[in-house]
Amino acid sequence: MLISLALMMLVGFGLSGIFKLLNLPGLIGMILAGILLGPYALDLISPSLLSITVELRQIALIVILLRAGLSLDLKDLAKVGRPAFLMSFLPALFEIGAIVLIAPYLLNISILDAAILGSVLAAVSPAVVVPRMLHLMEHSYGHKNKIPQLIMAGASLDDIFVIILFTSFITLRQGQSVDLSILSSLPISILTGIGLGFALGYSIVIIFKRIHMRDTVKVLLLLSMSFLLLGLEKDINLFIPYSALLSVMSLGISILRFYPVLAHRITSKFSKIWVGAEVFLFILVGAVVDLSSLQSYAWVIILVLFIGLIIRFIGVQVSLFKSKLTLNERLFTGIAYIPKATVQAAIGSIPLSLGLSSGNIILSAAVLAILITAPLGAIGIDRFASRLLSKSS
């Protein structure tokens, strides 16, 4: 396993650096490193490491959600108002709906499998979006109408919404009975997730203010609490619907709300942790990709992907209808909602691991979505931010 870890980091960071020199997201290089080192190519990754990919993906998701929560100011969200709320679910619903309509005919899969595919593809990538929005905030781009805050909040909540839908669709698929009443638990899981996250965050703030400890220890405690929230999710769901991932992000938001000085200090530490976490996340996704099976339907998947993106863009514009945003700001927001990576990497291989007949198609679609939309969205954000957003002095 040690040799596998060494190769993953060396090749992953190496290819990531090359892609960054080309002004492309480094995560593309990491995925390619996974494909190269994986069992379908050079087969240099230890099976024991591949067996814990689920846990490693969960750790990576926790890191990025905590980091996003620690950067989301409730006051900014209140100023954004209705558009932020609509952006958290409407574009995803537009995209999932489009894929449910077209995928059964183009990919010859069932409607429920198309819904699973849509929920995998619909999430915006915090790994691509959040760092760029933080950069825009630091340089005061889109400050007047809180564009970076709107996009970051919408994208983060969008991920939670999509993951909950994905989990619901998987549950339905495994039960082989389509009982959509399970979706009625969605509002309850959102409320319980937010409530528990905020309550835990407030309690932790009280402890941190009374007991002196190093910031590094605080970060480790926050990670431990987040692991606990995620680990207990199934047990809590036996009694009441509950979203652990939403709790994790709410935990970060509450710390920023009640202890902003600490939140600003430890955000940089989570950024450093993410440097290591993203290597394992994206390399292990690339490692399970079978390129030979991808070739047979790649172009059809790409067609489905781009149709979904077009409908998603329309969903973004509908969400911003009658808002204070200018036409340029609305166009930029649509561009910022293009990149897909983190959630696709985290959940894209789950249907295949569960033995779903469409699992290989869904995984291939997740990987193609990352390889195509992550650089497309990242380049779009970087190139058009200064052209479409005003800069405050």
Descriptive account of the structure:
By secondary structure, the protein is mostly helical. It has helices at residues 2-21, 26-37, 47-50, 53-69, 74-80, 82-87, 90-107, 111-121, 126-138, 147-175, 186-210, 215-231, 233-237, 244-258, 260-287, 291-294, 298-319, 327-336, 342-347, 350-353, 359-388. The protein has a single domain (2-388), classed as Na+/H+ antiporter like fold (Up-down Bundle), CATH 1.20.1530. It has 21 helices and no strands. α7 (90-107) crosses α8. The chain is globular and about 55 Å long. The mean pLDDT is 85.
Q: Can you summarize the main beta sheet?
A: none
Q: Could you say how many structural domains there are in total?
A: 1
- Uncertain runs: none
Question: What would you call the shape?
Answer: globular
The CA-CA distance between the termini, in Å, is 52 Å
Q: Give the SSE order as H and E letters.
A: HHHHHHHHHHHHHHHHHHHHH
What number is the mean pLDDT?
85
Enter the CATH topology name.
Answer: Na+/H+ antiporter like fold
Oligomer type = single chain
CATH class: Mainly Alpha
CATH architecture: Up-down Bundle
Helix content: over 70%
Radius of gyration: 20 Å
Number of helices: 21
Helix/strand class: mainly alpha
Give the percentage of residues in beta strands. Answer: under 5%
Number of strands: 0
Write the layout of secondary structure elements.
Blueprint (H helix, E strand, L loop, with lengths): L1 H20 L4 H12 L9 H4 L2 H17 L4 H7 L1 H6 L2 H18 L3 H11 L4 H13 L8 H29 L10 H25 L4 H17 L1 H5 L6 H15 L1 H28 L3 H4 L3 H22 L7 H10 L5 H6 L2 H4 L5 H30 L5
Helix pairs in contact: 1-2, 2-15, 4-12, 4-14, 4-15, 7-8, 7-17, 8-10, 8-21, 9-10, 9-21, 11-14, 12-14, 12-15, 14-15, 17-18, 17-21, 18-21
